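Fill-in record for AAA family ATPase.
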Amino acid sequence: MYNKTPPTDELTKDAARVAPRPQTIEATGLTSAFLGDLVEKHLFEGGVLSMRDLVSRTALSGRLLEELLSFLRQEGRIEVRAQHGENQGLGYALTERGRGSAMASLMASGYIGPTPVPLDYYNQVVLAQSVRGRNVTRERMIAAFEDTVLDPALLDRLGPAMNSGKAIFVYGAPGTGKTFITQRLARLFDDTCLIPHAISIGDTVVRVFDPSVHRQSQDNSPVVMLTRGHDPRYVLCQRPLVITGGELTADMLEVQFDPATRQYRAPLQVKANGGMLILDDLGRQRIAPTTVLNRWILPMEEGVDYLSMNTGQHFRTPFDVILVFSTNLQPRDLVDDAFLRRIGYKIGFHALNPRQYHMIWQRACEARSVRYDALLCQFVIDALYKPTATPLLPCHPRDLIGMALDRAIYLDDWVGLTAEALQWAWDNYFVTTPGSNGDTEAELRRS
Protein backbone atom coordinates (compact mmCIF):
# COMPACT_ATOMS: atom_id res chain seq x y z
CA MET A 1 0.00 0.00 0.00
CA TYR A 2 1.33 3.43 -0.96
CA ASN A 3 2.05 5.44 2.18
CA LYS A 4 4.71 8.11 2.45
CA THR A 5 3.06 10.43 4.95
CA PRO A 6 5.60 12.76 6.57
CA PRO A 7 6.31 12.21 10.28
CA THR A 8 3.76 13.68 12.70
CA ASP A 9 6.19 16.21 14.17
CA GLU A 10 6.92 17.62 10.70
CA LEU A 11 3.21 18.00 9.97
CA THR A 12 2.68 19.73 13.31
CA LYS A 13 5.55 22.16 12.79
CA ASP A 14 4.39 23.01 9.28
CA ALA A 15 0.82 23.64 10.46
CA ALA A 16 2.08 25.86 13.27
CA ARG A 17 4.14 27.85 10.77
CA VAL A 18 1.18 28.35 8.41
CA ALA A 19 -1.30 29.23 11.17
CA PRO A 20 0.37 30.03 14.51
CA ARG A 21 -1.70 30.21 17.68
CA PRO A 22 -2.94 33.76 18.36
CA GLN A 23 -1.52 35.13 21.60
CA THR A 24 -3.60 38.31 21.68
CA ILE A 25 -7.14 39.28 20.72
CA GLU A 26 -5.73 41.43 17.93
CA ALA A 27 -3.92 38.40 16.51
CA THR A 28 -7.24 36.56 16.05
CA GLY A 29 -8.23 39.19 13.47
CA LEU A 30 -11.58 39.62 15.27
CA THR A 31 -12.90 42.32 17.57
CA SER A 32 -13.54 41.97 21.29
CA ALA A 33 -17.21 42.69 20.61
CA PHE A 34 -17.48 39.83 18.09
CA LEU A 35 -15.67 37.39 20.38
CA GLY A 36 -17.71 38.51 23.41
CA ASP A 37 -20.94 37.83 21.52
CA LEU A 38 -19.70 34.34 20.62
CA VAL A 39 -18.82 33.56 24.25
CA GLU A 40 -22.29 34.77 25.29
CA LYS A 41 -23.94 32.42 22.81
CA HIS A 42 -21.96 29.48 24.19
CA LEU A 43 -23.07 30.36 27.72
CA PHE A 44 -26.65 30.74 26.51
CA GLU A 45 -26.51 27.24 25.05
CA GLY A 46 -24.43 25.56 27.76
CA GLY A 47 -25.57 27.27 30.95
CA VAL A 48 -22.81 27.41 33.56
CA LEU A 49 -19.47 26.65 31.88
CA SER A 50 -15.98 26.33 33.31
CA MET A 51 -12.90 27.87 31.75
CA ARG A 52 -11.97 24.45 30.36
CA ASP A 53 -15.43 24.14 28.79
CA LEU A 54 -15.06 27.53 27.13
CA VAL A 55 -11.56 26.77 25.86
CA SER A 56 -12.86 23.56 24.27
CA ARG A 57 -15.97 25.18 22.80
CA THR A 58 -14.39 28.37 21.43
CA ALA A 59 -10.90 27.11 20.43
CA LEU A 60 -9.41 30.14 22.18
CA SER A 61 -6.66 30.01 24.78
CA GLY A 62 -7.43 30.56 28.46
CA ARG A 63 -5.40 33.77 28.36
CA LEU A 64 -7.63 35.30 25.68
CA LEU A 65 -10.80 34.06 27.35
CA GLU A 66 -9.81 35.63 30.65
CA GLU A 67 -9.56 38.96 28.90
CA LEU A 68 -12.93 38.51 27.22
CA LEU A 69 -14.65 37.31 30.40
CA SER A 70 -13.28 40.29 32.29
CA PHE A 71 -14.73 42.56 29.62
CA LEU A 72 -18.13 40.81 29.82
CA ARG A 73 -18.16 41.03 33.63
CA GLN A 74 -17.48 44.74 33.47
CA GLU A 75 -20.43 45.04 31.09
CA GLY A 76 -22.62 43.18 33.57
CA ARG A 77 -23.35 40.43 31.04
CA ILE A 78 -21.85 37.44 32.91
CA GLU A 79 -21.32 36.41 36.50
CA VAL A 80 -19.09 33.93 38.31
CA ARG A 81 -20.77 30.96 39.93
CA ALA A 82 -19.58 28.06 42.05
CA GLN A 83 -20.05 24.66 40.42
CA HIS A 84 -20.90 21.52 42.36
CA GLY A 85 -20.94 17.78 41.78
CA GLU A 86 -18.62 16.44 39.10
CA ASN A 87 -17.70 19.93 37.86
CA GLN A 88 -16.52 21.54 41.07
CA GLY A 89 -14.85 24.94 40.88
CA LEU A 90 -15.73 28.27 39.35
CA GLY A 91 -18.00 28.60 36.37
CA TYR A 92 -19.43 31.41 34.26
CA ALA A 93 -23.07 32.13 33.49
CA LEU A 94 -25.10 34.87 31.84
CA THR A 95 -26.85 37.56 33.80
CA GLU A 96 -30.31 38.71 32.77
CA ARG A 97 -28.69 41.44 30.74
CA GLY A 98 -26.36 38.90 29.18
CA ARG A 99 -29.26 36.63 28.20
CA GLY A 100 -30.92 39.48 26.39
CA SER A 101 -27.68 40.33 24.61
CA ALA A 102 -27.10 36.66 23.66
CA MET A 103 -30.62 36.34 22.24
CA ALA A 104 -30.05 39.44 20.12
CA SER A 105 -26.77 37.95 18.86
CA LEU A 106 -28.49 34.67 17.99
CA MET A 107 -31.13 36.52 16.01
CA ALA A 108 -28.35 38.10 13.96
CA SER A 109 -26.39 34.84 13.54
CA GLY A 110 -27.27 31.36 14.74
CA TYR A 111 -23.65 30.19 14.64
CA ILE A 112 -22.44 28.63 17.90
CA GLY A 113 -19.14 26.84 17.49
CA PRO A 114 -15.36 27.27 17.50
CA THR A 115 -14.15 30.79 16.83
CA PRO A 116 -14.02 31.51 13.08
CA VAL A 117 -11.00 32.84 11.23
CA PRO A 118 -11.34 36.04 9.18
CA LEU A 119 -11.68 35.59 5.42
CA ASP A 120 -8.30 37.16 4.62
CA TYR A 121 -6.56 34.86 7.13
CA TYR A 122 -8.25 31.85 5.53
CA ASN A 123 -7.26 32.93 2.02
CA GLN A 124 -3.61 33.23 3.09
CA VAL A 125 -3.61 29.75 4.65
CA VAL A 126 -5.18 28.18 1.53
CA LEU A 127 -2.52 29.69 -0.71
CA ALA A 128 0.28 28.73 1.70
CA GLN A 129 -0.72 25.06 1.51
CA SER A 130 -1.84 25.03 -2.14
CA VAL A 131 -2.53 21.65 -3.70
CA ARG A 132 -1.00 22.99 -6.92
CA GLY A 133 2.43 23.12 -5.36
CA ARG A 134 2.85 19.34 -5.32
CA ASN A 135 4.86 17.45 -7.95
CA VAL A 136 3.82 13.99 -9.10
CA THR A 137 6.46 11.74 -10.62
CA ARG A 138 6.05 8.46 -12.48
CA GLU A 139 7.58 6.68 -9.48
CA ARG A 140 4.89 8.10 -7.18
CA MET A 141 2.12 7.20 -9.63
CA ILE A 142 3.33 3.61 -9.88
CA ALA A 143 3.56 3.36 -6.08
CA ALA A 144 0.08 4.83 -5.59
CA PHE A 145 -1.49 2.34 -8.03
CA GLU A 146 0.68 -0.69 -7.35
CA ASP A 147 -2.37 -2.68 -6.19
CA THR A 148 -4.49 -1.63 -9.18
CA VAL A 149 -4.62 -3.09 -12.69
CA LEU A 150 -4.15 -0.07 -14.90
CA ASP A 151 -2.83 0.53 -18.42
CA PRO A 152 0.62 2.17 -18.03
CA ALA A 153 -0.23 4.57 -20.85
CA LEU A 154 -3.26 5.80 -18.88
CA LEU A 155 -1.11 6.21 -15.79
CA ASP A 156 1.32 8.34 -17.80
CA ARG A 157 -1.52 10.64 -18.85
CA LEU A 158 -3.03 11.04 -15.40
CA GLY A 159 0.30 11.90 -13.74
CA PRO A 160 1.10 14.99 -15.85
CA ALA A 161 -2.55 16.05 -15.58
CA MET A 162 -2.20 16.14 -11.80
CA ASN A 163 0.91 18.31 -12.13
CA SER A 164 -0.80 20.81 -14.41
CA GLY A 165 -3.19 22.22 -11.81
CA LYS A 166 -5.78 22.37 -14.60
CA ALA A 167 -9.18 20.72 -14.74
CA ILE A 168 -9.28 17.10 -15.92
CA PHE A 169 -12.09 15.67 -18.06
CA VAL A 170 -12.34 11.86 -17.96
CA TYR A 171 -14.80 10.00 -20.14
CA GLY A 172 -15.66 6.49 -21.21
CA ALA A 173 -18.33 3.79 -21.05
CA PRO A 174 -19.86 2.81 -17.69
CA GLY A 175 -17.70 0.31 -15.82
CA THR A 176 -14.35 1.37 -17.27
CA GLY A 177 -13.12 2.43 -13.81
CA LYS A 178 -13.32 6.22 -14.07
CA THR A 179 -14.71 6.84 -10.60
CA PHE A 180 -12.53 4.20 -8.95
CA ILE A 181 -9.31 5.49 -10.51
CA THR A 182 -9.99 9.21 -10.07
CA GLN A 183 -10.80 8.71 -6.39
CA ARG A 184 -7.54 6.84 -5.95
CA LEU A 185 -5.65 9.84 -7.28
CA ALA A 186 -6.15 11.26 -3.79
CA ARG A 187 -3.48 8.76 -2.66
CA LEU A 188 -0.95 11.10 -4.22
CA PHE A 189 -1.70 13.61 -1.46
CA ASP A 190 0.55 12.28 1.29
CA ASP A 191 0.41 15.36 3.49
CA THR A 192 -2.17 17.33 5.44
CA CYS A 193 -3.79 20.75 5.32
CA LEU A 194 -5.60 23.04 7.73
CA ILE A 195 -9.36 23.34 7.43
CA PRO A 196 -11.05 26.09 9.47
CA HIS A 197 -14.10 25.28 11.54
CA ALA A 198 -15.63 28.44 10.09
CA ILE A 199 -14.70 31.69 8.39
CA SER A 200 -16.01 35.17 9.11
CA ILE A 201 -16.91 37.72 6.47
CA GLY A 202 -17.48 40.81 8.54
CA ASP A 203 -19.97 39.77 11.21
CA THR A 204 -21.26 36.84 9.15
CA VAL A 205 -19.96 33.33 9.90
CA VAL A 206 -19.83 30.51 7.33
CA ARG A 207 -19.20 26.93 8.46
CA VAL A 208 -16.47 25.15 6.50
CA PHE A 209 -15.36 22.03 8.40
CA ASP A 210 -17.64 19.11 7.53
CA PRO A 211 -17.04 15.74 9.28
CA SER A 212 -18.62 13.93 6.33
CA VAL A 213 -15.95 15.33 4.00
CA HIS A 214 -12.90 16.18 6.10
CA ARG A 215 -10.84 13.39 7.67
CA GLN A 216 -8.93 14.58 10.70
CA SER A 217 -5.25 13.78 10.97
CA GLN A 218 -4.21 11.73 13.96
CA ASP A 219 -2.28 14.75 15.17
CA ASN A 220 -4.58 17.56 16.25
CA SER A 221 -2.89 19.38 19.08
CA PRO A 222 -5.06 19.75 22.21
CA VAL A 223 -6.65 23.19 22.42
CA VAL A 224 -5.58 23.57 26.08
CA MET A 225 -1.94 24.03 25.03
CA LEU A 226 -1.27 27.75 25.01
CA THR A 227 1.81 28.26 22.87
CA ARG A 228 2.63 25.12 20.90
CA GLY A 229 0.93 23.74 17.81
CA HIS A 230 -1.27 25.39 15.20
CA ASP A 231 -4.18 27.76 15.68
CA PRO A 232 -6.94 25.46 17.06
CA ARG A 233 -9.52 27.35 15.03
CA TYR A 234 -8.30 25.06 12.25
CA VAL A 235 -8.49 21.27 12.07
CA LEU A 236 -5.48 19.40 10.70
CA CYS A 237 -6.94 17.08 8.04
CA GLN A 238 -5.98 14.83 5.18
CA ARG A 239 -6.32 16.77 1.95
CA PRO A 240 -10.04 16.79 1.06
CA LEU A 241 -11.65 14.52 -1.51
CA VAL A 242 -15.13 15.82 -2.32
CA ILE A 243 -17.29 13.77 -4.70
CA THR A 244 -20.70 14.73 -6.03
CA GLY A 245 -22.80 13.06 -8.71
CA GLY A 246 -26.38 13.00 -9.85
CA GLU A 247 -27.51 14.65 -6.60
CA LEU A 248 -25.73 17.89 -7.49
CA THR A 249 -27.89 21.01 -7.63
CA ALA A 250 -26.91 24.59 -8.42
CA ASP A 251 -27.36 25.76 -4.83
CA MET A 252 -24.73 23.27 -3.61
CA LEU A 253 -22.13 25.38 -5.44
CA GLU A 254 -23.12 28.54 -3.58
CA VAL A 255 -23.09 29.59 0.08
CA GLN A 256 -26.12 27.94 1.69
CA PHE A 257 -28.28 29.68 4.29
CA ASP A 258 -30.64 27.83 6.64
CA PRO A 259 -33.34 30.29 7.74
CA ALA A 260 -34.44 27.98 10.56
CA THR A 261 -31.03 28.02 12.27
CA ARG A 262 -29.81 31.29 10.74
CA GLN A 263 -26.53 29.63 9.79
CA TYR A 264 -24.42 29.67 6.62
CA ARG A 265 -22.58 26.68 5.19
CA ALA A 266 -19.76 26.71 2.66
CA PRO A 267 -20.29 25.32 -0.87
CA LEU A 268 -18.63 22.13 -2.07
CA GLN A 269 -15.68 23.83 -3.74
CA VAL A 270 -14.72 25.71 -0.57
CA LYS A 271 -14.86 22.45 1.41
CA ALA A 272 -12.61 20.93 -1.27
CA ASN A 273 -9.98 23.70 -1.17
CA GLY A 274 -6.54 22.16 -0.84
CA GLY A 275 -7.67 18.85 -2.34
CA MET A 276 -9.78 17.30 -5.10
CA LEU A 277 -13.33 17.93 -6.29
CA ILE A 278 -14.81 15.22 -8.52
CA LEU A 279 -18.04 15.86 -10.43
CA ASP A 280 -19.11 12.31 -11.23
CA ASP A 281 -21.73 11.23 -13.77
CA LEU A 282 -21.70 14.60 -15.49
CA GLY A 283 -24.86 14.95 -17.56
CA ARG A 284 -27.00 13.00 -15.07
CA GLN A 285 -27.64 15.95 -12.74
CA ARG A 286 -30.99 17.63 -12.28
CA ILE A 287 -29.49 20.78 -13.81
CA ALA A 288 -28.16 21.22 -17.34
CA PRO A 289 -24.48 20.27 -17.82
CA THR A 290 -23.81 23.68 -19.37
CA THR A 291 -25.04 25.34 -16.16
CA VAL A 292 -22.66 23.25 -14.07
CA LEU A 293 -19.71 23.73 -16.40
CA ASN A 294 -20.25 27.45 -16.96
CA ARG A 295 -20.16 27.88 -13.18
CA TRP A 296 -16.47 26.89 -13.30
CA ILE A 297 -15.20 28.97 -16.22
CA LEU A 298 -13.95 31.94 -14.17
CA PRO A 299 -12.65 29.89 -11.21
CA MET A 300 -10.70 27.61 -13.57
CA GLU A 301 -9.11 30.52 -15.40
CA GLU A 302 -8.48 32.88 -12.49
CA GLY A 303 -7.99 30.50 -9.55
CA VAL A 304 -10.55 32.56 -7.61
CA ASP A 305 -14.20 31.84 -6.80
CA TYR A 306 -16.74 34.64 -6.37
CA LEU A 307 -19.47 33.97 -3.81
CA SER A 308 -22.34 35.87 -2.24
CA MET A 309 -24.73 35.54 0.69
CA ASN A 310 -28.45 36.07 0.88
CA THR A 311 -27.85 39.57 2.23
CA GLY A 312 -26.22 40.49 -1.08
CA GLN A 313 -22.75 40.63 0.46
CA HIS A 314 -20.06 39.44 -1.97
CA PHE A 315 -16.67 37.93 -1.24
CA ARG A 316 -14.08 35.78 -2.94
CA THR A 317 -11.99 32.78 -1.95
CA PRO A 318 -9.13 30.91 -3.63
CA PHE A 319 -10.23 28.15 -6.00
CA ASP A 320 -7.45 25.75 -5.04
CA VAL A 321 -8.72 22.34 -6.11
CA ILE A 322 -7.87 19.64 -8.59
CA LEU A 323 -11.17 19.67 -10.47
CA VAL A 324 -12.19 16.43 -12.21
CA PHE A 325 -15.20 16.04 -14.50
CA SER A 326 -16.25 12.45 -15.14
CA THR A 327 -18.91 11.32 -17.60
CA ASN A 328 -20.27 8.24 -19.33
CA LEU A 329 -21.48 10.40 -22.22
CA GLN A 330 -19.64 11.76 -25.22
CA PRO A 331 -17.92 15.02 -24.18
CA ARG A 332 -19.10 16.87 -27.29
CA ASP A 333 -22.68 15.92 -26.47
CA LEU A 334 -22.31 17.88 -23.22
CA VAL A 335 -20.23 20.95 -24.07
CA ASP A 336 -18.86 22.77 -27.07
CA ASP A 337 -15.26 22.91 -28.22
CA ALA A 338 -14.77 26.35 -26.67
CA PHE A 339 -15.33 24.94 -23.20
CA LEU A 340 -13.28 21.82 -23.85
CA ARG A 341 -10.33 24.06 -24.76
CA ARG A 342 -10.48 25.53 -21.26
CA ILE A 343 -9.98 22.08 -19.75
CA GLY A 344 -6.37 21.06 -19.62
CA TYR A 345 -6.63 17.29 -20.07
CA LYS A 346 -9.26 15.10 -21.76
CA ILE A 347 -8.55 11.48 -20.85
CA GLY A 348 -10.52 8.55 -22.22
CA PHE A 349 -11.03 5.31 -20.27
CA HIS A 350 -11.40 2.20 -22.39
CA ALA A 351 -12.00 -1.54 -22.13
CA LEU A 352 -9.39 -3.99 -20.85
CA ASN A 353 -7.25 -6.35 -22.87
CA PRO A 354 -7.47 -10.09 -22.01
CA ARG A 355 -4.28 -10.03 -19.92
CA GLN A 356 -5.61 -7.20 -17.74
CA TYR A 357 -8.96 -8.95 -17.46
CA HIS A 358 -7.25 -12.10 -16.16
CA MET A 359 -5.37 -10.07 -13.56
CA ILE A 360 -8.55 -8.46 -12.25
CA TRP A 361 -10.37 -11.82 -12.31
CA GLN A 362 -7.59 -13.33 -10.19
CA ARG A 363 -7.81 -10.51 -7.64
CA ALA A 364 -11.59 -10.85 -7.49
CA CYS A 365 -11.18 -14.57 -6.77
CA GLU A 366 -8.71 -13.83 -3.99
CA ALA A 367 -11.08 -11.27 -2.47
CA ARG A 368 -13.86 -13.91 -2.33
CA SER A 369 -11.53 -16.74 -1.21
CA VAL A 370 -12.14 -18.92 -4.27
CA ARG A 371 -9.56 -20.61 -6.46
CA TYR A 372 -8.41 -18.73 -9.54
CA ASP A 373 -8.81 -20.93 -12.63
CA ALA A 374 -7.21 -19.34 -15.70
CA LEU A 375 -9.03 -21.75 -18.03
CA LEU A 376 -12.40 -20.83 -16.54
CA CYS A 377 -11.63 -17.14 -16.93
CA GLN A 378 -10.64 -17.72 -20.56
CA PHE A 379 -13.90 -19.64 -21.08
CA VAL A 380 -15.82 -16.54 -19.97
CA ILE A 381 -13.89 -14.40 -22.45
CA ASP A 382 -14.21 -16.84 -25.40
CA ALA A 383 -17.72 -18.19 -24.85
CA LEU A 384 -19.51 -15.16 -23.41
CA TYR A 385 -17.73 -11.95 -24.36
CA LYS A 386 -16.61 -12.65 -27.92
CA PRO A 387 -19.93 -13.91 -29.36
CA THR A 388 -21.74 -10.85 -28.03
CA ALA A 389 -18.94 -8.35 -28.75
CA THR A 390 -19.15 -7.17 -25.15
CA PRO A 391 -16.15 -5.10 -24.02
CA LEU A 392 -14.02 -6.38 -21.15
CA LEU A 393 -14.66 -3.94 -18.32
CA PRO A 394 -12.96 -3.79 -14.91
CA CYS A 395 -16.19 -4.08 -12.94
CA HIS A 396 -17.29 -7.36 -14.57
CA PRO A 397 -15.12 -9.94 -12.76
CA ARG A 398 -16.17 -8.81 -9.28
CA ASP A 399 -19.84 -8.70 -10.25
CA LEU A 400 -20.00 -11.95 -12.21
CA ILE A 401 -18.10 -13.89 -9.55
CA GLY A 402 -20.28 -12.39 -6.83
CA MET A 403 -23.50 -13.41 -8.58
CA ALA A 404 -22.23 -16.93 -9.25
CA LEU A 405 -21.42 -17.32 -5.55
CA ASP A 406 -24.86 -15.92 -4.60
CA ARG A 407 -26.39 -18.76 -6.64
CA ALA A 408 -24.18 -21.37 -4.97
CA ILE A 409 -25.35 -20.24 -1.52
CA TYR A 410 -28.97 -20.30 -2.66
CA LEU A 411 -28.67 -23.84 -4.03
CA ASP A 412 -26.63 -24.97 -1.02
CA ASP A 413 -24.37 -26.63 -3.55
CA TRP A 414 -20.88 -25.29 -2.94
CA VAL A 415 -18.52 -26.50 -5.63
CA GLY A 416 -16.77 -23.22 -6.32
CA LEU A 417 -17.01 -21.38 -9.61
CA THR A 418 -18.24 -23.34 -12.60
CA ALA A 419 -18.98 -22.54 -16.23
CA GLU A 420 -22.67 -23.18 -15.62
CA ALA A 421 -22.79 -20.77 -12.67
CA LEU A 422 -20.98 -18.06 -14.63
CA GLN A 423 -23.30 -18.50 -17.61
CA TRP A 424 -26.23 -18.03 -15.21
CA ALA A 425 -24.60 -14.91 -13.74
CA TRP A 426 -23.99 -13.54 -17.24
CA ASP A 427 -27.66 -14.04 -18.22
CA ASN A 428 -28.80 -12.18 -15.12
CA TYR A 429 -26.23 -9.39 -15.27
CA PHE A 430 -26.73 -7.97 -18.74
CA VAL A 431 -29.81 -6.50 -20.34
CA THR A 432 -30.87 -8.45 -23.42
CA THR A 433 -32.51 -6.57 -26.27
CA PRO A 434 -35.68 -8.33 -27.52
CA GLY A 435 -35.09 -9.88 -30.93
CA SER A 436 -31.35 -9.62 -30.63
CA ASN A 437 -30.80 -13.41 -30.52
CA GLY A 438 -29.18 -13.13 -27.15
CA ASP A 439 -26.85 -10.26 -27.99
CA THR A 440 -26.21 -8.05 -24.99
CA GLU A 441 -26.20 -4.31 -24.79
CA ALA A 442 -23.39 -2.39 -23.13
CA GLU A 443 -25.74 -1.33 -20.38
CA LEU A 444 -24.84 -2.67 -16.97
CA ARG A 445 -26.43 -2.58 -13.62
CA ARG A 446 -24.60 0.07 -11.61
CA SER A 447 -23.44 -1.19 -8.24
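KEY FINDING: The mean pLDDT is 88.
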